[in-house]
Specification:
The complex is a heterodimer of chains A (258) and B (298).
Chain A (H helix, E strand, L loop, with lengths): L5 E10 L2 E11 L4 E5 L6 H8 L7 E6 L2 E2 L5 H8 L2 E4 L11 H6 L3 H14 L3 H14 L14 H14 L4 E5 L7 H18 L2 E6 L2 H7 L2 E6 L2 E6 L6 H8 L3 H7 L1
Parallel strand pairs in A: 3-8, 3-9, 6-7, 7-8
Antiparallel strand pairs in A: 1-2, 1-4, 4-5, 9-10
Helix pairs in contact in A: 5-6
Chain B lengths: L8 H27 L12 H13 L19 H33 L11 H23 L2 H12 L3 H26 L3 H7 L5 H34 L8 H10 L3 H29 L1 H8 L1
Helix pairs in contact in B: 3-6, 3-8, 3-10, 4-6, 5-6, 6-8, 7-8, 8-10, 9-10
The chains are: A alpha/beta (258), B mainly alpha (298).
Chain lengths: 258, 298
């Protein structure tokens, strides 16, 4: 049995007096596909930032690929991050670079500064072929040399996915990958990510607020509310009441909205 | 405030405050004008001689000289159009040379005077060091640009004599200060989303800067450098007034002799050069900014 991709024990993160992630204990096994669900502000994004080691927990411990990250220096953290692909909600593409230049940066964590500069100026033949193949898989191969700023939102999202794939990650974390696209495209994107995770055998963890998509495609759902994990199970094992409770507005929140 | 009746209190307060800012600016202007003894009559030439000279100068704009006005011009002198072109070439040479020195200097200082490349997690020692470099760099850039190029020219010419290098450095120093300051601000204003995404997949701080922030800022840096190149052309012409051989020197010499038609010939040459550079830079801007291109296509 391989080590789990992530193992959190009692992880807590605070922003001043706000507790964004509250005593979360969660194990994500290698090759698993799961969705973090829950209303906005429930701590999904912060938890993803903890998982990719960009945010150190204020309390609790995190192990990545079986090793605790506490005490790792920045070089070791960077090496770890190069094995984890992250697609942020805003995608994080470099606007003035072309699709191929953006995608090639997926491997920058492993390749270092000088090689990355060479890559974006003079991409190698083998990289170009590999990227073309990935772009074919995500359906935008004709955009290889187009600048990302000229692409539609949906196409930019595909570029971000291609960048993650070119990284050849062991884990893919995606923060609200479908928040900015229409429902039909959102469904396609989630389906594509789950298919890719199976095809390329990486661990997949998505945060989603489209509950229906999570129920349809992901075998494990982890529900968060006020920073804490309040439910965890397969779609079949969760009942409707629990799921409805997850998105129920608190009395105080309703007062605030009014 | 009757004009703001019916508006929410906070908004009315804001509009009121804005009105006072405008009134404050107007009052400051009036105080300055009064202390300088400015009167509308100052816009009118004081006597008939000045009237005539002003009239001649502007009338000459309609008939720039096609030949030298000075009857003592030697026969073997270059034709005036060739002299104008050579003047432009000298002007361009100083401006181009100065920018070739100023841009690399500004890139280094702009990088050191920006904080976009600082590692997120830094120890106290590194923090102090980075801040020290940042402040020193900003100070050097402020010093370089707070002295006008004409004053740099006077200082450097008195130190090194009438050498072309002194003229070029007189432009390069203040221009590197201005360019460096704007470069560092453009770099720091660049959106950090791409940088964060690259850090999240293991890019180091300098690497993130070079491939994630700099390419985003580059079109703005280039556009601004072109604008400064136009300024350098004008400043290079102005250096003629302290004796450096650019088209400004010809303008000054003709002006001293009241050869206004010649002055206008040289001014039109300079104008043509500025327009050409402007068109060139506009073309490059269009190429660099895909968003505008996209909007035009739609």
């Amino acid at each position: 049995m391989p080590e789990p991709s992530f193992d959190c024990i009692g992880v807590t993160c605070r922003f001043g007096s706000l507790v964004a992630v509250d005593q979360v204990s969660l194990t994500i096994e290698t090759g698993e596909q799961l969705a973090l669900i829950g209303p906005s502000g429930s701590g999904k994004t912060t938890l993803l930032r903890v998982l990719n080691t960009m945010r150190a927990p204020d309390e609790g411990t995190l192990s990545v690929f079986g090793a605790p990250i506490e005490g790792n220096d920045s070089r070791e953290l960077r090496r770890l991050r190069s094995r984890i692909a992250t697609i942020p909600q805003h995608l994080g593409l470099v606007p003035n670079l072309s699709v191929i230049q953006n995608v090639i940066l997926g491997r920058g964590g492993r390749r270092g500064t000088a090689r990355s500069l060479r890559d974006i100026l003079f991409p190698s033949r083998s990289d170009t072929l590999a990227i073309h193949e990935i772009l074919e898989r995500v359906g935008i191969e004709e955009k290889l040399y187009q600048r990302t700023a000229q692409l539609s939102g949906g196409q930019q999202q595909r570029v971000a996915i291609a960048r993650a794939l070119f990284q050849e990650p062991e884990v893919l974390l995606a923060d609200e990958p479908v928040s900015a696209v229409d429902p039909a495209r959102a469904r396609d994107t989630v389906k594509l990510l789950v298919e890719l995770a199976k095809e390329r055998a990486f661990t997949l963890c998505l945060s989603l607020h489209h509950l229906e998509l999570a129920l349809e495609f992901l075998p494990r759902l982890v529900g968060m509310r006020h920073g804490a994990v309040v439910l965890d199970g397969s779609p079949d094992s969760l009942d409707e009441g629990e799921l409805a409770d997850l998105y129920r507005l608190d009395q105080a929140e309703m007062m605030a909205d009014a | 405030m009757s004009a703001h009746v019916g508006l929410p209190r906070s908004l009315a307060g804001r509009l009121g405050a804005r009105r006072w800012v405008v009134v404050g600016i107007a009052i400051t202007f009036l105080i300055c004008a009064w202390s300088l003894g400015l009167t509308p009559a100052g816009l009118v030439p004081p006597d008939a001689r000045h009237w005539e000279r002003t009239g001649n100068f502007f009338a000459a704009a309609l008939s720039p000289a096609m030949d030298y006005q000075d009857p003592d011009t030697p026969d073997d002198a270059n034709p005036i159009w060739l002299k104008g072109l050579l003047g432009l070439f000298h002007t361009l040479r100083y401006a181009f040379g100065a920018m070739s020195i100023a841009i690399p200097l500004a890139l280094v200082m702009g990088f050191l005077g920006a904080s976009a490349w600082w590692p997120e997690r830094r120890g106290p020692l590194l923090g102090v060091l980075l801040r020290g470099v940042f402040i020193t760099c900003r100070f050097v850039m402020s010093l370089a640009r707070s002295i006008h190029e004409l004053i740099w020219a006077l200082l450097l010419l008195s130190a090194f004599g009438m050498s072309p290098l002194a003229g070029m450095m007189a432009l390069a120093l203040p221009f590197s200060g201005t360019l460096g300051k704007v470069f560092s601000e453009l770099i720091d204003e660049e959106a950090r989303e791409a940088a964060q995404a690259l850090q999240a997949v293991g890019h180091g701080p300098i690497q993130t800067f070079l491939v994630g922030i700099f390419p985003g800022a580059l079109p703005n840096l280039i556009t601004y450098s072109f604008y400064r190149f136009e300024c350098a052309l004008r400043s290079s012409a102005v250096l003629g007034f302290v004796g450096i051989e650019t088209i400004g020197l010809y303008i000054q010499l003709s002006h001293e002799e009241f050869f206004y038609h010649e002055v206008w010939t040289y001014l039109y040459f300079l104008l043509a050069l500025i327009v050409i550079v402007d068109l060139w830079s506009a073309g490059i801007r269009r190429h660099l900014n895909p968003a505008t291109e996209w909007r035009t296509v739609r």
